[in-house]
Structures are given as structure tokens and as C-alpha cells.
């Protein structure tokens, strides 16, 4: 664990950039009073702007070569990475190859190695054109590395940016990588990165019967951990199959605390294109278990919400249409009435949108879908909302397990906390 300077809390803002040029998109969000054209020009990505003490720069795990290159010397390496695995502007795979690391294979999660596949799309195995290395999918026929995939590998290096929500599937990929490594006696190295939603903990703890790929651990919706800290919790609590533990090394972020606010320099997935969408994601993703669109199929995913079953008097409307990030978006081609959340300030995780949209729905019997419980992680919340419970009343029902989780979380923190 590195030394930290708690008194010098890092304060900075990174404006999001994208790793690929964004094509013009159709189905752009529009206000009913004076709707803009359905296709809008997209401004060039902003430059990275840093405001931070010169004496204490943040350094992600992947950039701390002195900490992990010695662990890779003479070993056959498998990389579990996507487009966020960069040191500066360079992809980690290219950097490690230039340093003589014996990289044998690349494993890609949901959205693929380059992070360009649509949400939920099956990813096929292939070859990375730049390096010539085999690129194997962990979001296709298998989500867990097979013995054959790892036969010629000694160590797996995981470097993927997370956003701090239980249902963001990259942490499920990490779980399966650790599990396969434990079963096949391989080492795992986590190159840690900051959590943009790591400044708080909130939401219900997942009940075991709702364990799926969009929720594998008994943690709240907003877990308040980096991937390195969560990996230590998974290992330490013996959550891998059969209670096994893998040989785990975490390379921490230097200069980070959970009070540090961090916006991502590269979009973590196609439908989280801005810092604002990352902030809203934990709250708005619950709508994916309802008939409300979160803006997939527009140029404002996770920044607009609406549905055909909402009142037409709602102040905003949009029409989802297929685009590269969502080839078959919910409510495809239908006018959705709702809100543009641009300008909404920092509020953390909330049920207020969900409760409001249920109460205003003109088709309450069709509002929730069968997938809602998989996202919220508990059997009670749907019924509580239907019964007219307030957010405060619903939150009170989470508190016992949430309080227990907060105590557990303290055991695995690598960085000074936000409290």
C-alpha cells in the first residue's frame, strides 16, 4: 500500500474525451415546444483540464510501472482490458509490449476490447489489428475464462475503468477472471483506477436470490469501492465459487482518496459519454427495469428520461432510434415524454425519479418489467413504490444491511475515506 497525504486532498476535474470520433446520430433528444433537428452535430471532444496540486499528482495503477513490471518479468501475460486501459494516451497493451512484456492474449469485456460494441451485443473472438495478438471475448459464448484460454498464461492483468455501480458488468467480469485464476492457479494483478462515484455509499444490498451477471455480490447499488478494493473484498470474503481465493496483487492509485472527485478521461462504455451521465447512472439505470427510456438511441444517453406512457405535459420529449451504441433501443421510434436532466446538480443516488415516473404513468400495470428486481437487488422496492411509500420510508428498510456493509467496506479500503 502506498503512503498517502490525507491533508492534501486531491481536487481536480477531468473533462471527458472519447477514444473514437462519434458519428452523427439520429433520434436526438428534443423539447416539444421547439424541437431541434433529429440529427445534431457533435462538438469535438474537449481537452483534458487539470486543477490539482503539482506536488501530489494522481497516478493510476497502470502508470506505476515500478510496482508491477517486476511481477511480469519472465511470465506469460493475459490482459483483461478495454479502451479505458491507457497510460496517458497510449493503450496499455501497446505500452507493455514496448517494454518487452510477454503479452500472449487480450481478453475483452462487454462492449469489446475497443469499447465500441452496442449494449448487450455478443462479442466474438478475433485478433487485435495493431498488436496482432488474439483478442478473446468474455462477453460472448463464455463470460469466464476457460482452462484452454489460460493454458499458456501465468498471470492475468486486469485494467478496466469502473463507474462504481453494482450493475455495471465490468466488475462481474473481474469476478469471473479471479474465479478462473483461483481454479487454475494463476496470478491476478489489478491495476487500480479511481471510482467516479466512490465518494459515497448508497442503495439496498443485493439479496442472494437476485444474483446475476448484473449483480453478483452482496453489496449496495453504489458500493463506494475501487475495483482493487472490491477485488480484495471478493477474495477476502470468499465470494468466489467454492470459497476459493486467487493469488491477488492490487497496484493502488497514487494520490487518490475517496473524497477525490474524478471524471473519466475516456468514456467507459458507449452509453456513458459524459461525466454527468456517469453521475446519474446509478439512479437512472433502475429505469432499465421499467418502460421508461434512459435515452439509449439518442445522443444523450443517461441524461434524458421519458416514456410514451408519461403525460404529454412533461417538459421534454425525444424519440429513440438505433445508433452504434444501441442498435435496438427501448421504445424504438416512439415519442417519449419526460425530462432533460442537463443542469441537474450533484444529488447522488435517489429513487425520486423512479417514484415520480411510476406515480405519473398512464399504464402503471406495465411500468415495471421482470428485470427490475435484478437491478435494484431486493424484492421489496417494487411493492413499496406501488404501495405509495416515500423515499425516506423505503430507505429506512435498507438501513440494517447497508449499515453492516459499511462496516465490512472499511476492512478493504486502500485509500483514505470520504468521511
End-to-end separation: 20 Å
Order of helices and strands: HEEEHEEEHEHEEEHEHEEEHHHH
Strand order of the largest sheet: 5-6-4-1-7-8-11
Low-confidence stretches: 1-55
Portion in strands: 5-15%
The tally of strands reads 14
CATH 2nd-level architecture of the largest domain: 3-Layer(aba) Sandwich
CATH fold-level topology of the largest domain: Rossmann fold
CATH superfamily of the largest domain: Uncharacterised protein PF07075, DUF1343
Q: What is the approximate shape?
A: globular
Structural class: alpha/beta
What is the radius of gyration computed over CA atoms, rounded to a whole number of angstroms? 21 Å
- Biggest sheet statistics: 7 strands, mixed
Query: Would you state the CATH class of the largest domain?
Result: Alpha Beta
Tally of alpha and pi helices? 10
Task: Please sum up the structure shown.
By secondary structure, this protein is α/β, with parallel strands linked by helices. It has helices spanning 65-72, 92-98, 147-150, 170-184, 227-236, 275-284, 352-360, 372-376, 380-386, 391-410, and strands at 76-81, 86-87, 90-91, 102-108, 126-127, 134-137, 155-159, 187-191, 202-205, 220-222, 247-251, 304-307, 316-318, 336-340. It folds into 2 domains: 61-261, Uncharacterised protein PF07075, DUF1343 (Rossmann fold); 275-378, no CATH class.
Amino acid at each position: 500500500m502506498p503512503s498517502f497525504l490525507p491533508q492534501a486532498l486531491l481536487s481536480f476535474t477531468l473533462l471527458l474525451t472519447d477514444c473514437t470520433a462519434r458519428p452523427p446520430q439520429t433520434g436526438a433528444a428534443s423539447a416539444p415546444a421547439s424541437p431541434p433537428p433529429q440529427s445534431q452535430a457533435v462538438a469535438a471532444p474537449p481537452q483534458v483540464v487539470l486543477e490539482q496540486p503539482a506536488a501530489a499528482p494522481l497516478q493510476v495503477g497502470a502508470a506505476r510501472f515500478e510496482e508491477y513490471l517486476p511481477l511480469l518479468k519472465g511470465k506469460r501475460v493475459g490482459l483483461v482490458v478495454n479502451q479505458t486501459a491507457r497510460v496517458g494516451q497510449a493503450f496499455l497493451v501497446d505500452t507493455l509490449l514496448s517494454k518487452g512484456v510477454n503479452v500472449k492474449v487480450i481478453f475483452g469485456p462487454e462492449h469489446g476490447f475497443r469499447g465500441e460494441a452496442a449494449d448487450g451485443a455478443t462479442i466474438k473472438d478475433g485478433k487485435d489489428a495493431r498488436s496482432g495478438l488474439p483478442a478473446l471475448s468474455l462477453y460472448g459464448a463464455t463470460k469466464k475464462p476457460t482452462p484452454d484460454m489460460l493454458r499458456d498464461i501465468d498471470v492475468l492483468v486486469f485494467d478496466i475503468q469502473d463507474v462504481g455501480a453494482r450493475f455495471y458488468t465490468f466488475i462481474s467480469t473481474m469476478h469471473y477472471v479471479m474465479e478462473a485464476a483461483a481454479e487454475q492457479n494463476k496470478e491476478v494483478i489489478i491495476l487500480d483506477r479511481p471510482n467516479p462515484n466512490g465518494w459515497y455509499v448508497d442503495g439496498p444490498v443485493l439479496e442472494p436470490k437476485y444474483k446475476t451477471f448484473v449483480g453478483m455480490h452482496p453489496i449496495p447499488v453504489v458500493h463506494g469501492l475501487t475495483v482493487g478494493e472490491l477485488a480484495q473484498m471478493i477474495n477476502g470474503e470468499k465470494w468466489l465459487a467454492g470459497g476459493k481465493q486467487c493469488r491477488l496483487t492490487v497496484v493502488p492509485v497514487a494520490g487518490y482518496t475517496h473524497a477525490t472527485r474524478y471524471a473519466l478521461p475516456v468514456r467507459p462504455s458507449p452509453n456513458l459519454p459524459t461525466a454527468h451521465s456517469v453521475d446519474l447512472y446509478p439512479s437512472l439505470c433502475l429505469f432499465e427495469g421499467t418502460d421508461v427510456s434512459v435515452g439509449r438511441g439518442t445522443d444523450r444517453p443517461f441524461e434524458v428520461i421519458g416514456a410514451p406512457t408519461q403525460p404529454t405535459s412533461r417538459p421534454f420529449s425525444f424519440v429513440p432510434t438505433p445508433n452504434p451504441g444501441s442498435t435496438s433501443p427501448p421504445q424504438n421510434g416512439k415519442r417519449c415524454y419526460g425530462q432533460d436532466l442537463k443542469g441537474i446538480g450533484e444529488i447522488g443516488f435517489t429513487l425520486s425519479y423512479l417514484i415520480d415516473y411510476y406515480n405519473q404513468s398512464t399504464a402503471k400495470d406495465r411500468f415495471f418489467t421482470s428485470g427490475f428486481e435484478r437491478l435494484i437487488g431486493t424484492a421489496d422496492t417494487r411493492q413499496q413504490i406501488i404501495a405509495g411509500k416515500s423515499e425516506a420510508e423505503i430507505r429506512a428498510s435498507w438501513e440494517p444491511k447497508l449499515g453492516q456493509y459499511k462496516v465490512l467496506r472499511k476492512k478493504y479500503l486502500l485509500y483514505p475515506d470520504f468521511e
